[in-house]
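U., I forgot to send this yesterday:
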Amino acid sequence: MLSYEYKVKLGVFLGISFCGLVDNAIVMRFLFFHVKKNPFTVYTLNLAVADFSLLLLFSLLLLLSLSLTICSLFDDILYIYIAFEFLCYFFDVSSLGLLTAISMERCVSVLFPIWYRCCRPKHLAGTVCGLLWAFSGSLVSFMYLSFSFGREHVKTYGAVAIAICVTFSLIMLISNLFLFIKLQHPGFRLRHPGKLYVAVLINTIFFFVFAIPFSMELFLSLAGRLQLLPEDISLLLAMLNSSINPVIYFLVGCC
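Result:
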């Protein structure tokens, strides 16, 4: 039987998750129907889809945890948790990749404006998003098959996933660092308002404070944990990150 304190904690997490779902749904509708498509809106729309799906999975897991009567109807409820957990892996990796792509796109557009306006492939953003979705799906599919049929390779895939997260983080850190250094130039600052400083700063802080702890904890415990429940602060940070991501990166794209 779940304790009262645990139920309250689950309820708070569920409320944050629902708020994030509404937030992402509004952003998706706005970007899809009311905004002219450009590279930043394409990336942000895909990011909103990834975060919406991740929050939806969180909500389903939380509802299953709160409703013991529903859970008792399933003999193989453990397999449902495992499937949901690997879907969380998929959307989490996709979200990290899209965040990195947005950061690189913004950095290239500022550092190489002439090339960006004249020579950049027209459908590059859509192609990159498709490749990121395909890459994440392939990685998580191998992880799930390994977990289901040969767990001796699960730790290897977990290590690969951690390496991918670290790589994405380094790329994002370097691109933001180059952009921030470029913004220090006096002539460049006159052409770009101070709000871009704030956008870059918020971008980096939210990514490393909110997204990275959950991703690292998720893959480090891949071999031993069979369900995704709010046992620590990392899940709360992940929910907050997925809830505010679309707003931050939409504002960054506008800047």
